[in-house]
Amino acid sequence: MEYTHKNLIHIKTSFTKDLEKLGYKELKEKYLGKKGLVTEALKEITSIPSKEKPIYGKEVNTLKTFVEDNISEKIQENREYASKPKIDPTAPFDINEDSQIYSEMLSLEGSKHALTKEAERLLSIFSSMGFDILESRQIDDDYNMFQSLNFPKGHPARDMYDTFRTEDGLVLPAHTSTMQNRALKKFGPPPIAVVLPGRCFRNEATDAGHEHTFHQIEGVYVDKNVSLSNMIATIKTYLERYLETNLKVKIQPAYFPFTEPDCEFVIGCPFCNMSGCSTCGHSGWIEIMGCGMIHPNVLKEADIDPELYSGFAWGFGVDRLAMIKLGIDDIRYLRESNLNFLRQF
Ligand code: DAH
Fold this sequence. Notes:
This protein is an alpha+beta fold. It has 13 helices and 7 strands.
């Protein structure tokens, strides 16, 4: 009797806990179902000595009523909840009204944003080429944005980057090069092959070609005897795989404090076969990214000996490259969340 009494207390405690966690259907099944705990406890009565049967019977019936009452209450609460008007503060209409736009939205399946899909395509190409992937930060500091990249305080080239700053002196990264020093330290000693995707921000007026928020993928490759021709071959290879066409490429001079030499990577326009169209501004060529051999000061700052190792780096805009691939002529579409636009991809 002692044991069976304890068992009833145990069932009550576990039911009280389950009441918080389980739905009424599960509760019913677990406690009042064919093999439910209360059902089993009721069956026990046959094995109880007849003297103790009345007490046990009373206790087990009290437990049964307790469980049934609580489950009915839960069902009632559920009904009341279901009959209350629903609230969705993000919906641009009243979701309790039978609107056409709501039923249309319910019939749609969500999908990845065009930019996400393109970034994933690019990253899988880099993975297959042996590059590690490390995402950049969306808030950073002056050291990673400038100093570690060979822009000392007061360097005029800092003005090339219209950097947003917080009141505490932190910066919103204006490029993914902010990750170079971290990546060199994290993946070093060489060989190092890593790509650094991330969101970037610039305090610029927006137009068809410029956004204050955009995405870049930085690449960093360091080993012994790395040359500029390795850089050209690597960039050409992944661009051809991404754009799915053979490309004519060239480099032209540029200026970045963190590379030496500094280059602009240029591709022959794949849309007009270089005869001139709106994508290439009728020049036949498209400047696609900044790149170059990593400056010895940048390597030194990450404890890599520039006498022993050399490397290259690049940084390109994912939005720009995706626009070229998908034939989008205004970068602002990529941030607008306009479903008519997004459904095309
Ligand atoms: N961070 C540069 C920009 O956004 C692009 C760039 C140029 C990245 C040269 C590099 C590089 O890694 O080596 O303007």
